[in-house]
Write a structure and sequence with these properties.
Function: Molecular chaperone. Has ATPase activity.
CATH topology of the largest domain: Heat Shock Protein 90
Shape: elongated
Structural class: alpha+beta
Subcellular location: Cytoplasm
Keywords: ATP-binding, Chaperone, Cytoplasm, Nucleotide-binding, Stress response
Strand content: 15-25%
Number of helices: 22
Radius of gyration: 33 Å
Distance between the termini: 76 Å
Protein name: Chaperone protein HtpG
Oligomer: single chain
Helix content: 25-40%
Subunit structure: Homodimer.
Bound molecules: adenosine-5'-triphosphate
Largest sheet: 9 strands, mixed
Number of strands: 22
Length: about 650
């Protein structure tokens, strides 16, 4: 078969440019990446050989060899792992098959800081392509285990690569030959190579040799890192291992290394990254923990091993008890896997609690990065609800920074029966929500929740320490029973206000009639202090923000009717009450007031982040009122009950 010349996927070409520039200061990592690929290839073959021992019969000892050739300025990285055939070469070394490719490419182009770029590249697993930082061109010769045909792939990393059959491939596995650029001779020097391997690849469990002949020297420890005693592992070795398993280049934020003994025996070496992996919100929600059985890699895709809400974990779980030839299907309902799952979740959550107590500031950065994922557990894992609630941190209407539920409970007012929450699209918008006004006036703290997941877990939580979690947008505001410490003043005000109770009652009745069919009810509220009106959900109805989210995602097509609450102390409402109840302007329902009723509802909808049901009618009403306001001349002073009615109504629309 003749030579095929193929184009790199467009993203690969762009990536190659970025890699060449941004990895340059850290170029020795190419060796780590290629050794890591060789090790993965051996791991995969070892697993395949459990059911097909003939694949390795003539060469059962896995190894990686680094072969420098100073004379020709070449370095070859060879492994006797699984190998690649033509299609594998084209697919693996010509494209980036990962989801989220474009996203990361865009982030890469926008990244300013070198470290940020290196980290993004690391998350992406550019692995192999890093070799173009030191090589002009690269040849890959490979023969897949169990196949007879060998293949040669070659490229100078400038847009195209070639693939052809070759007789010159290894008996099994892959040989990557780097034709080093001028000036990169250091990577043919034995001492330099040994140093780089010791530094970045000592944790690799497959032996790495310098040279291929009889006298080849093994230059790594070659025992699985997680099996070594903790006291013998340095921080650097842990970090390099983390980078190997996570394909990220950042520092791990936390590590957890333990051996579970008892009914089920296994070793765990887990890490939490310090930066967000680019696919954290990928719909597949896969975790990054590899399953090994007695040091043999089995799969990186055992969903049952860990819950999706811990998918930011990276590392390995190595079981002593599972059968080596276990299939995916068998893993699904395996009681040992379930036990490993439970034990590991408990250990991770406990470790997080310790971190939260000992290093609260560092814990907050973790929470900012992974809190939205951890919160998924609040409705997916009822067993861990209490632990997760203890770990959760929140923004609050009363304080800056993050607070825990315990902090909240300690700050509750006398008579307060619930933990109040408000969900929405952003913390900034929530801080301005009219629903908070009454709570703020009484100094009652409200938790502000702006992650999409919040709408889902809040209803499922029920209580924390005997207090119900309650959205402030739902039900009556219950503020009467909470003491603010200003009760005398409150008393005085309420005497004064009683006079207008009847008038407000009439307005409420009138609004109900005017807006019939559009709302469930109208009521006077204490919830508001500055705004004229707002919308709330009836007790037992779905939260307004949750409903909007579901509608946006096509999971719901109807919208529930809401309750319009009006603030009796607001000048506009007071003036409307007077007009409706009667003495001036003939009383009752003048067309002007009917228009105002619609404007009240529409402004409440707008504040809620919704659109008026009939935007054209809203615009017309508003223009009419403003025009009338202008005809009667400038409005004097601030809006009070004595202000011209048209001025008030114009304000209703603003
Ligand atoms: N020595 C090798 N033997 C067999 N396959 C290899 C080898 N080197 C690379 N590959 C294949 O090429 C793919 C891409 O390698 P690359 O180093 O670019 O990314 P990677 O981050 O290692 O990929 P992944 O994270 O998916 O393992 C690998 O996933 C593997 O399938």
């Amino acid at each position: 078969m003749s030579t095929e010349t193929l184009n790199f996927q467009a993203e690969v070409s762009r990536l190659l440019d970025i890699v060449a520039n941004s990895l340059y200061s850290n170029k020795e990592v190419f060796l780590r990446e290629l050794v890591s690929n060789g090790s993965d290839a051996c791991d995969r073959l070892r697993y395949a050989a459990i059911t097909q021992p003939e694949l390795v019969a003539d060469d059962p000892n896995y190894r990686i060899s680094l072969v420098p050739d100073a004379e020709n300025r070449q370095l070859t990285i060879a492994d006797n792992g699984i190998g690649m055939n033509r299609d594998d070469l084209v697919e693996n070394l010509g494209t980036i098959a990962r989801s989220g490719t474009l996203d990361v490419m865009n982030q890469l182009q926008q990244a300013q800081d070198e470290n940020e770029k290196v980290n993004l590249i690391g998350q992406f697993g550019v692995g192999f392509y890093a070799a173009f930082v030191v090589a002009d061109w690269i040849e890959v010769r490979s023969r897949k285990a169990g196949e007879s045909q060998g293949w040669r792939w070659a490229s100078d990393g400038r847009g195209t690569f070639t693939v052809e059959e070759t007789d010159d491939a290894p008996a099994r596995g892959t040989r990557v030959t780097l034709h080093l650029k001028e000036g990169e001779d250091e990577f043919t020097e034995s001492e330099r190579i040994k140093h780089v391997v010791k530094r970045h690849s000592d944790h690799i469990a497959i032996p790495i040799f310098l040279g291929e002949d009889e006298g080849a020297e093994q230059i790594n420890t070659a025992s699985a890192l997680w099996t070594r005693p903790k006291s013998e592992i340095t921080d650097e070795q842990y970090t390099e291992f983390y980078r190997h398993v996570s394909h990220q280049m950042d520092e791990p934020w936390m590590r957890l290394h333990f051996k579970a003994e008892g009914k089920v025996e296994f070793t765990c070496l887990l890490f939490i990254p310090s930066t967000k992996p680019f696919d954290l919100f990928d719909p597949q929600r896969k975790h990054g923990v590899n399953l090994y059985v007695r040091r043999v890699f089995v799969t990186d895709d055992c969903a049952e091993l860990l819950p999706a809400y811990l998918r930011f974990l990276r590392g390995v779980v190595d079981s002593e008890d599972l059968p080596l030839n276990i299939s995916r299907e068998m893993l699904q309902h395996n009681p040992m896997v379930q036990k490993i799952h439970q034990t590991t979740v408990n250990r991770v959550l406990n470790e997080l609690k310790k971190k939260a107590n000992k290093e609260p500031e560092s814990y907050q950065t973790f929470w900012e990065t992974f809190g939205p994922v951890l919160k998924e557990g609040l409705y997916e894992d009822p067993q861990q609800k209490d632990s997760l609630l203890e770990l959760a941190r929140f923004r609050s209407s009363e304080r800056d920074g993050w607070i825990s539920l315990d902090d909240y409970v300690q700050n509750m007012k006398e008579g307060q029966q619930a933990i109040y929450v408000l969900t929405g699209d952003s913390i900034e918008a929530l801080r301005k929500s009219p629903q908070l006004e009454g709570f703020k006036a009484k100094g009652v703290e409200v938790l502000l929740l702006a992650d999409p997941i919040d709408d889902f877990w809040v209803p499922s939580i029920g209580e924390y320490q005997g207090y119900t979690l309650k959205p402030v947008t739902q039900g009556a505001a219950e503020l009467d029973s909470i003491k603010s410490g200003e009760d005398d003043e409150q008393q005085e005000r309420s005497d004064e206000e009683k006079t207008s109770d009847a008038a407000i009652g009439t307005l409420v009745a009138y609004l109900k009639t005017a807006l019939e069919g559009q709302i469930k009810d109208v009521r006077s509220t204490e919830r508001l202090t500055e705004s004229a009106c707002c919308l709330v959900a009836d007790e037992g109805d779905m939260d307004i923000h949750l409903e909007r989210l579901l509608r946006q995602h096509g999971r719901m097509d109807q919208s529930s009717q809401r309750i319009l609450e009006v603030n009796p102390k607001h000048p506009l409402i007071a003036r409307l009450s007077e007009r409706v109840s009667g003495s001036d302007n003939g009383g009752g329902a003048s067309p002007e007031i009917k228009e105002a009723a619609h404007l009240l509802l529409d402004q409440a909808r707008i504040v809620e982040g919704e659109t008026p049901e009939d935007p054209a009618a809203f615009a017309r009403r508003m223009s009419d009122l403003v025009a009338k306001g202008l005809q009667t001349g400038p409005v004097q002073g601030t809006a009070t009950a004595a202000t011209a009615s048209t001025g008030d109504e114009a304000e209703a629309a603003s």
